[in-house]
Amino acid sequence: MLALGAAMPALAQTVAADPATTATTAAAAAPAPALPPGARTYSVPLSRLSGQSALPLRGVDGINGLGFSARRDQQVIGARVNLDYSYSPALLPDLSHLKVLLNGEVAGSVALPKEAAATPTHQTVELPVPALADYNRLDVQLIGHYTLGCEDPVHSSLWADVAGRSTLELTVMPVDLPNDLALLPVPFFDSRDIRQLVLPIVLGRTPDTARLESAGVLASWFGALAGYRGAKFDAHLQDLPATGNAVVLLQPGDTVAGLTTPTIDGPSVAMQTNPRDPHGKLLLVMGRDAKELKQAAAALALGSEALSGPQARITRLDTPRPRKPFDAPNWLRSDRPVAFGELVPTRELNVSGHRPPPVQVNLRVPPGLFGWHSDGVPVDLVYRYSPRPGAKQSVMEMMAGNQLIRSFALHEGPGVYNRLTGVPVSEGQARVMVPTYLLPPQTALQFNYVYEYAKLGECQNSILDNVRSAIDPGSTIDISGLPKYAAMPDLSLFADAGFPFTRMADLSETAVVMPEGAGVSDFSSYLTLLGVMGQATGYPATGVTVTQSGQVAAQRDKDLLVLASGDNQPLLAQWGDALPSGFNGKERRFSLSGWVDGVASWLGNDPRDRKRQADIQLAFSSGGVSATLAGLQSPLQSGRSAVVVSGTSADGLASAVQALLTSRDTESKADNPQDRIGGSLTVISGKEAYTLQDEQNYYVGSLPTWLGLQWFFARHPLTLVGALLLSALVIAVLLYLSLRARAQRRLGS
Predict the structure, then answer these.
(1) β partners of residue 683
(2) Which of 30, 506, 600, 681 is the most buried if burial means most Cβ atoms within 10 Å?
(3) Which residues pair with 173 in a beta bridge?
(4) At 122, which CATH number?
(5) Residues 208 and 167 in one domain
(6) Exposure string over 177-193, b if 16+ CB within 10 A, otherwise e
(7) Which residues contact 471 (CB under 8 A, 6 or more apart)?
(8) Would you call 731 exposed, middle or buried from its count of C-beta atoms within 10 A (0-12, 13-18, 19+)?
(9) Angle at the Cα of 394 (from 389 to 399), degrees rounded to 5?
(10) End of a domain among 443, 477, 511?
């Protein structure tokens, strides 16, 4: 789980520290003992394990920690934590220290000398291997005191911070697992491993479009399993990776170096040892033809739980029910309210302490949620807390994306409402309307309990561990009342949720257009991109179509995902001026939005209907590696979308795909290129991404008739004025004719 790459020195010697508080530390000059054959040492930042940029410790016994585990094909033989920390200069060194606990047992303690206070400090603590379990808890506790007399247990001087760059190191030996499909997805994906999934896929030959579709099903499945970790796939043609695990696609006649191909008598799946690595495994996906190969891939992605033994032949695969728009398993349901208990385990909705960590409910909201002229998304909230006598300022703050929505007072005793309704004082209920602009495709609701500490007087203050808080799992969020209607192109929706391709979770309305003469790197980019789609939806891309530029006309009814690495994509030349960028093999061309067009029009266009005409043309040639993401309405059919992912070379295409991968390694979203992808044209250079054009000129989705009319006239007020004038003129003419006819009848009588 905790492997991060190159091996690091293992199990350094320990020395004694301050006799008052024994610290287990690494001796700087001591040589590290040699690792046993086959052993490796991995490290992972604590920020990645905890999801926090730092571990704050507050109060006389502030504690914070994280969970970790090891892969099932590894045995831990050594463990230690490298702490980077700082602490208050007011702490008394004879009475204060940091205590490191592993699964509730003390693993070591770290002295806090006065001379090192308030400066970054490093210390290594060895962890006892016998105390390790399948799932482990590592905590750091501050035992802090600032005076020899009576003290305030929550005094502001009682603080320490463990930096997120601190690392946990594990030395592991490989464990040989049996060739049993019942283990799937282990060892190819292990949920205990929080690193990015890197998995080779051996295609068996230079693939045609049908084989790429089968490989895409598998890549999207593993991408869905990887989730927040992200997944990267390295394509191989006819060679196995030298170490580790791999997926292999085979049909009769395929030859893979070093691999003895079993008899293929139908769609089948098998697991065997990697002949190049006795500790690695191969997952063989086989079929006698392209149809059977895709059937085997789909069976693996949709029903791996039913497989067992070293090999299984697929005798039947029922066709999955057709997917509906916006029904991806990862997304909030749009047909009914969704309970928090469906989104988060109940234990994660409960916290304890006066300053507990926020309760967090992660959300994946369907892209294009249309909240114009709406009150927002209703959240029916039920929360519980421990009333604190004498604490009048206790609150619970509800936030979305770290922005405050509403605060709730946590009353110390029963009020009029409680007496009238019988609702206990320890429970609160409310309906909160969350503005839709606070609900992008990836966000979270946070509930932060802040209890006032009631001070009784000098030498009478103490902290009792009896404060409990919870968000009821029956609390709901309901987006069923809002339509889906998105202004396009919008590459931020593509980066966040794979939209518009993920509108159908199985990608049944998506066609991927491969470059001409694609190479291994292009295949890797395609597979990784399909993994990104699976990560967004939580469902394998069983309906994706792969095609070439010459056959793209047959896919006019689908959204097009166009890949290019250099000048090997004819569509870039054929579509010409429809593209906001182009590449002819020697020169890149960009259409840039002007400054003047960024000014809002007096006509009152909605901010979501941004349209800046491209009035600057820029062309240049360069030998550097760069990539672009471009969105546009499909030139083949209105209402359909096309996204071009292109690079000046295969490496450029790979960098564009890499920018779309999410990773918990990033401690600040400001450092994540994904958060700067948007508009209709984004250029990626290295780790930087720049939006050069933001022109939205069509919509995806639909609106109810009356809301659609309101939206149309809101964006075209002059049309509304003209319609009103025309209506008034028609009414005047009809009224004139009616009065004239009445006058003629009266004169005639």
Answers:
(1) 628, 690
(2) 681
(3) 75
(4) 2.60.120.260
(5) no
(6) eeeebebbbbbbbbeeb
(7) 340, 349, 359, 361, 381, 382, 383, 384, 447
(8) exposed
(9) 155
(10) 477
Strands 135-143 and 97-102: antiparallel
- Name the token pair of 486: 């998105």
Question: Could you give the 3-state DSSP secondary structure of residue 532?
Answer: helix
361 lies in the same domain as 422? yes
Q: Model confidence over 291-333: pLDDT tens digits?
A: 999 999 999 999 888 899 999 999 988 888 899 999 999 999 9
Residues 304 and 413 in one domain: no
Would you list the DSSP string of 592-608? Answer: EE-SGGGSPPTT---GG
Residue 188, CB-side half-sphere exposure with 13 Å CA sphere: 32
Q: Can you give the pTM of this predicted structure?
A: 0.86
d(CA 54, CA 43): 17
How many angstroms from the chain centroid is the CA of residue 309? 34
CATH number of the domain bearing residue 241: 3.30.379.10
Residues 232 and 302 in one domain: yes
Structural domain that includes position 599: 485-701
| Six token digits for residue 39 | 């052993």
- How many residues can be counted in the chain? 749
Q: End of a domain among 420, 446, 477?
A: 477
CB 533 within 8 A of CB 501: yes
Per-residue model confidence as pLDDT tens digits over 9-64: 333 333 333 333 334 444 333 455 678 888 889 899 999 898 888 999 998 888 99
Q: How far is Cα 484 from Cα 372, in angstroms, rounded to an integer?
A: 11
**Tally of domains in the chain:** 5
pLDDT at residue 594 in the model:
44
Q: Where do runs of H (alpha helix) occur along 273-403?
A: 290-303, 340-343
190 with 307, same domain: the answer is: yes
- List the one residue out of 175, 77, 191 whose CA is nearest residue 135: 191
637 and 565 within one domain: yes
Backbone angles phi and psi of 42, in degrees to 5: -120, 155
My answer on whether 489 and 437 are in the same domain is no
DSSP string for 715-733: H-HHHHHHHHHHHHHHHHH
